[in-house]
Amino acid sequence: MKKKLLSVLLTAVIAAGTLAGCGSASSGSGDAGSAGSAEAAKDGEYTQITYAFVSFNTIPDNTADVEEIINQVSREKIGVEVHLMPLSIADYSQQVSLAAQNGEIDIFHTLGDLSQAISSDMVLDITDMIDEDAAETKALLEPEWLKTCEGPDGRLYAIPTLKPFALQPMLIYRKDIAEELGLDMASVKDPADLTPIFEAVKAAHPEITPLAPVSSGDSGMSRWCDEIDFLGGDYATPIGVLQGEDMTVKSFFSLDQFKENADLVRYWYENDLIMKDAATTTSAAAELMSSGNYFAYSASYSYPLEDTAAALSAPSGFDVGAIALGEAYLDTSMINAVSQAISATSKNPDAALKFLNLTYTDETVINAMLYGVEGRDYVRNDDGTVSYPEGQDAATVPYTAQLSCGVLGNFFIQWPLQGSGSVESLAWEDEQNHNAKTSPAMGFIFDATPVRTQLTAVSNVIQQYFPGIQCGSVDPATAIPEFEKALSDAGYDEILAAKQEQLDAWLAQQ
Fold first, then answer.
1. What is the pLDDT of residue 88?
2. Domain boundaries, the chain
3. Cα(139)–Cα(379) distance, rounded to whole angstroms?
4. How far apart are CA 386 and CA 391, in angstroms?
5. What is the structure's pLDDT at 464?
6. Which string of b and e fits 344-374 if b means at least 16 CB within 10 Å?
7. Rounded to whole angstroms, how far apart are CA atoms 208 and 274?
8. How many whole angstroms separate alpha carbon 127 and alpha carbon 313?
9. DSSP calls for 31-100
10. Cα–Cα distance between 328 and 469 in angstroms, integer?
11. Do 495 and 449 meet the contact criterion of CB atoms below 8 Å apart?
C-alpha cells in the first residue's frame, strides 16, 4: 500500500511550519534523464555539483557512501556527480545564503522566502532551461502550480516540491499521557481550548512542560489565525497579509486573532505551560518530544490527522496523536514555499537542473537522499515500506534525512515509512490540493524590489520582537505597541502600501 512519512516542514519558516511530508512510492526507477547519458563525461570525468538541503534529523558526519549510491545513477544518466550538504534547520538560511554568495552550492530550496530570493538575485532564471533539462519534472506539475514560482517579470525561478500543499494547523500530542489523564482531546476546537488540557498535564506531571516550540522562536501561534494569505511571506515573517475575502492588505500583527493568541501564549508562559526558552532554543519539536519532557507541539501539515500522527510517532519517540486547530487554507505561498532552485552563482546550472530533475523522477536518487544506505541506515520491507534496522532508530543510524521527505523532490515516488499513510490518504491529499478553501489572491506574487531596503529592516525588527511575543516570554500589552512602532520606523507602512498597490493592479487584470 502507498504510505507516507511526514516532516516538521517547514518548521522554522513554514515552520516556518511547514510541514512537509514523505510520500508513497511507485515501483521502479524513472527513466527521466536517460537521454542525458550520452553526455556523460569520458575517462571518468563528471560535472560536480553541490545540493544544500535542510535536515530535521541529526546532521551526519559523512555523506560519501550515500553520494556514491546516488552518483551511480547520475553518472550514467546525466554525467553528473553530486555532493550532499544537509544543514540543520537552525543554520539553513544563513549557511545557504553565504554558500550561494560564495559560489559553493548549485541547488538549494526555499523555506518560505522565494520572493526574497528572486528579488535579491539569489536564484537563476530557468525559463529557457527547463524544457531541455527538466522536461519530465515540468510534465508532473500543474501549470498553475509552476506559475507560483515565477517572478514579477513572468520568468520561472524555481520548481515547487511536488507534495500535498494545503496546510492544516494541528496539535501533536503524547497519547500515553492523554489516555492516562483521561483528557478529551476531541473537545479541542481552537487553541484556547488547550489551556485546561495543559493545566491538567502540568498538575499531574510537574516534570513535563505541556507545549514545546516547533522550532526556535515558533510556538505555532502564527498558524492559528483563520484564512490568512501571507502574500509571499510566511509564518515566520508575515509582512502584510489578507484575511478571508477582504482584499485589504493588513499588518498580521494588528489582527484581533493575533493579539488574542499572543495573550493566550503569555498566560501559558506565566503558568509554566510552554517551554521557557522557546524563543531562543535551537532544538526542534521532534528532538524535544523524544526527550520525554514535553507533551505536545503545534505545526501545520498537509495530511490526514491519522497519517500525521502515525508518521510522527517514531521521530517523536512516543505514540502521538493529532488534532486539528483550524481548517486547511491554500494560497500561493503554500505551493511555492518549499521550492527547489538553482543558485545564481552555480558554475554548472544545466547539470544542476538535470540532477534536480532526477529528484522528481528517479526513485533510487530521491530515496537515497532521504534514507541513506540500505541495510545500514534502513531496511526495505516486503510491502515496499522502509524501517530502521533492528535496534536502530533515527538518532542512531549514520545517515537519515527522513523528516525532510516533503522538502525534497517528488513526494509520490518516495518510499513510505512503515505504518504511515494509505491509498485512501493519497486520494484525500489530492482532494485537499484541489478543493481546500483558496485565497481570492491565489496566484498573486509580490515584487519586493521597490521596498527591498524596508523589507530587510522590517525583517530584522520581526526577528527581534516576534519570537518573544509568540512564545510568551514578553508581555504583549507592552511589547506589541513597541513592536508596531519599530515596524513603522523601519518602513513597514511602505511595504503594506506597495503590496496593496500591486495587488490592486493584479486584481484589475483578472
1. 94
2. 20-164+334-433
3. 32
4. 14
5. 97
6. bbbebbbbbbbbbbbbbbbbbbbbbbbbbee
7. 10
8. 41
9. -TTGGGGGGPPGGG--EEEEEEEEESSPPPS--HHHHHHHHHHHHHHHSEEEEEEEEETTTHHHHHHHHH
10. 24
11. no
Distance CA 267, CA 262 (A): 9
- Say if CB 14 and CB 235 are below 8 A apart: yes
Q: Is 195 helix (H, G, I), strand (E, B) or coil?
A: helix
Distance between CA atoms of 262 and 253, rounded to whole angstroms?
10
Q: Are 185 and 177 in contact (CB under 8 A)?
A: no
Residue identified by cell 517551554 is 275
- pTM for the structure as a whole: 0.69
Amino acid making up residue 119: S
Predicted pLDDT at 115 = 82
Provide the pLDDT for residue 92: 95
Give the 3-state secondary structure of residue 485.
helix
> How many other C-beta atoms can be found within 10 angstroms of the C-beta atom of residue 138?
16
The pLDDT of residue 3:
34
**Which CATH number is 20-164+334-433's, of 3.40.50.10320, 2.40.50.140, 1.10.760.10, 3.40.190.10?**
3.40.190.10
Question: What region, left, alpha or beta, does residue 292 occupy, with left being phi > 0 and alpha being psi -120 to 50 degrees?
Answer: left
Q: Are strands 339-342 and 159-160 parallel, antiparallel or unpaired?
A: antiparallel
Q: 414: closest CA among 429, 404, 427, 428?
A: 404
Burial of 393 by CB count in 10 Å (0-12 exposed, 13-18 middle, 19+ buried)? Answer: middle
In the chain (510 residues long), the average pLDDT of successive 10-residue segments reads: 36 36 39 41 79 95 97 98 96 95 97 87 98 97 88 91 89 97 95 97 98 94 93 87 96 96 98 96 90 95 87 88 92 90 98 98 97 97 90 95 91 80 67 83 86 94 97 97 98 97 91
**Interatomic CA distance for residues 56 and 406, integer angstroms:** 11
